[in-house]
Amino acid sequence: MSSISIRSLSKRYDSTPVLQDLDLDVESGCFFGLLGPSGCGKTTLLRLIAGLIEPDAGDILFDGQSVVDVPPERRRIGMVFQQHVLFPHMTVEENIAFGLRMRGTGLKAALPAVNDVLELVQLSGYNKRFPRQLSGGQQQRVALARAVVIDPVLLLLDEPLSNLDAKLRDDMRELLRSVQQRLGVTTICVTHDQTEAIELSDRMAVLFSDGIAQTGAPAELYERPANVQVAEFLGSTNLIPGTLVGTDHAESPIGRLRIREMAAAQCADGDAVQLNIRCEHIGMHPAGDEHQSQAWVRLPENHAFAEVVSSVYRGGFILYLVRSGSQTLRVIERSDRQFVPGARVVLRIPAEHVGVLPGPNGA
Amino acid sequence: MNKARRRQLSIFLGLAPALSVLTVLFVGPLALALIQSLGYAPIFGVREFPTLRFYTAVLGSTRFRLAFWYTMLYALVPTVLSTIFGTWLAVAARARMRGVRFLSFFVRLPLVVPYLVGAALVVALFANGGLVARVLFAVGIIQNTGDFPRILFSAGGWGIMLVYLFKQVPFTFVVVSSVLAGIGPELQEAARTLGASPWRAFRHVVLPRIFPGIVTSSLLVFAFNFQSYEIPLLLGPGFPGTLPVEALRRFQLPTIARRPEAMAYVMIITTLSGGILFLYLRAYRRWERSRGGV
User: Fold this and answer.
1) Given phi > 0 = left and psi -120 to 50 = alpha, else beta, which region is A301?
2) How far apart are CA A139 and CA A86, in angstroms?
3) For residue range A4-59, what is the model confidence (pLDDT) as tens digits?
4) How far apart are CA A195 and CA A23, in angstroms?
5) Average of per-residue pLDDT across A143-150
6) Beta partners for A33?
7) Contact indicator for A113, A100 with CB cutoff of 8 Å
8) How far is it, in rounded angstroms, from Cα A94 to Cα B291?
9) Predicted pLDDT at B291
10) Residue B135, exposed/middle/buried by CB under 10 A (0-12, 13-18, 19+)?
11) Which residue range is the domain that position B114 belongs to?
12) pLDDT computed for residue B154 by the predictor
């Protein structure tokens, strides 16, 4: 396994810049998720690392050694493509043995290793089948086995689960994680699925068309996004315009809110900001009889009255749209606590979950 | 009339025009040639049916054996070369190799030119008084245009094969290109990441995928070359001719009673050509089945 460093990497397609001056570090043995919307250049970055395309500028280093001039066949990488890309004229065992054969091992000599990885991906006994005789999930597992059997220094996964249905995706996600942990191979997984990235990654980066917006542990990115783009891209959140009051409070359309400690470290008193509150961090309680008229009731800090506008059942939870003052908020609640549209509720917003993002529009 | 019968009738009526043309233009003449080759040709004064005399006469002659080997040579060499060059061009054009895009445009042009024009071009270029000979003479490489090596009208068949290549490299290029267009670059890229050099990725991954296109184009090219008579007649030697040329010469003999020999030639050419193509196709199908029928 290798550590990967990317330095000032740039790539254009014709006159369109896809990646500009990109820097990234991936530690050895890490499962690194590269998350971003379609068209942001994440697959291009993966193909540059694989050596399938050449950068216009910058460097790619494996363990400190530049590989920019090394052809893909000599980079010792394993790659799993979005469309599986199994060789249709080869059996499962021939597909998996392909990388070993290209390294001078005969098919017979490669068979023990082939059988080992088939067991690893839970496909023992499928040796003689052709790809067209396998389901999508099985094909993707063969693709994974083919990529890891060569003992790569780096495993690249290009949207490996995007062509699978929901159930298969869950199974495959677990398999990917267990295989990576067992082999300890440095892995970069490109995806536009935030759940996939958060669940699989030790560390992850969010990439937009203007570059990497933030790098860190999944929980760090989710809980403390660096800007509005990241906050909106990762999960469901509420962004409320506000004005900082001192270093620990902010005025907002739903009232004065205490904010998370150090949340406003980059801002000063009076700055216009966006308050970031995750939907699941807002507590919702029925307003008591005494609260039916809010005119004379004083609520505790970080509490606000609201009225339920609509609700959408989503399996184990319900997503509510509520209106508090001039602000509409999204709130996620357990499905065993139901509120009907029009119901008056009290929102509780814990200070530790009120983040501050710079700029009135996140700018 | 019940529904099933009506359906059968409508299928038959739908196929009838095509079947009629096939019968009139192909099966009819072939059946006539077979009957005549077996000795029933009253129009030529031959009424010996059934006899294998004409086949024995043809197959036993040195002329036939020589014609067979030259036919194979003129058919096989251009087939192999056009398959190699046409495939290489198609692959290189897809890989956007420098200069190949320009070349691939020009290589298509001969497709719209008749074979006879190709023959005229080859004569203009490579005959002893042709353009190449004159240029070599002008620059002093040869002392006389007559010193230019005799590559036309000789048993070597260079002129014949040049015309075939002129037409068939573009043909193979177009067929293989269309097959390649259906295969994305992903397979080759996957092979590269697994340690295959560009050549090995092509050999192990791309080539098996474009093999059906290569087989199809080479089958058509070989069948044409084996049965073609105008180019060998124009650019080949007086002796020996190819099998179709020999058939034509038998047909033009003043002794019309020997015309069934021409029909024996026709039947032998058809059988040989069909047999070779059948064996080739069977070998390919067997290989294809061993690869899971893809």
Assistant:
1) beta
2) 7
3) 999 999 999 988 899 999 999 999 999 999 999 988 999 999 999 999 999 999 99
4) 24
5) 94
6) A189, A204
7) yes
8) 11
9) 73
10) middle
11) 62-290
12) 83
Each residue's pLDDT tens digit, B112-132: 889 999 999 999 999 888 899
Dihedrals phi, psi of A354, to nearest 5 degrees: -100, 105
The two beta strands, A65-66 and A303-314, are unpaired
C-beta separation of B185 from B119 below 8 A: no
What's the rounded Cα separation, in Å, for the pair A324 and A327?
5
Domain residue extents for chain A: 4-223, 237-358
Q: Which chain B positions have a beta carbon within 8 Å of A79's beta carbon?
A: 190, 193
* CA-based torsion, A247, A253, A256, A259: positive or negative: negative
Given an 8 Å threshold on Cβ–Cβ distance, is A72 in contact with B294?
A: no
CATH 2.40.50.100 for domain A237-358: yes
Spell out which residues of chain A touch residue B208, defining contact as CB-CB under 8 Å. 89
What whole-number distance in Å separates Cα of residue B158 and Cα of residue B70? 12
- State how far residue A50 is from chain B, nearest Cα, in angstroms: 7
The predicted-structure confidence for A224-252, as pLDDT tens digits, reads as follows 999 999 999 998 899 999 999 988 899 99
Q: Report chain A residues whose CB lies below 8 A from the CB of B189.
A: 50, 52, 72, 81, 85
Q: pLDDT value at position A263?
A: 65
What's B123's domain CATH number?
1.10.3720.10
Say yes or no: do domains A4-223 and A237-358 share a fold.
no
Give the pLDDT confidence score for residue B182 in this predicted structure.
86
Contact assessment for residue B277 and residue B223, using Cβ atoms and an 8 Å cutoff: yes
The total number of structural domains in chain B stands at: 1
Tell whether B187 is within 8 A of chain A (Cβ).
yes
| pLDDT > 70? residue A92 | yes
The pTM of this model reads: 0.80
pLDDT of residue A292: 56
Do A89 and B195 count as a contact with CB atoms less than 8 A apart?
no
Residue B258 has pLDDT above 80, yes or no: yes
Cis peptide preceding B240, ω within 30 of 0: yes
pLDDT of residue A124: 93
What CATH class has A4-223? alpha beta
* CB neighbour list of residue B163: distance below 8 Å, 6 or more residues apart: B115, B118, B119, B122, B231, B235
Q: Number of A:B CB contacts under 8 A?
A: 71
Q: What is the mean pLDDT of residues A104-129?
A: 93
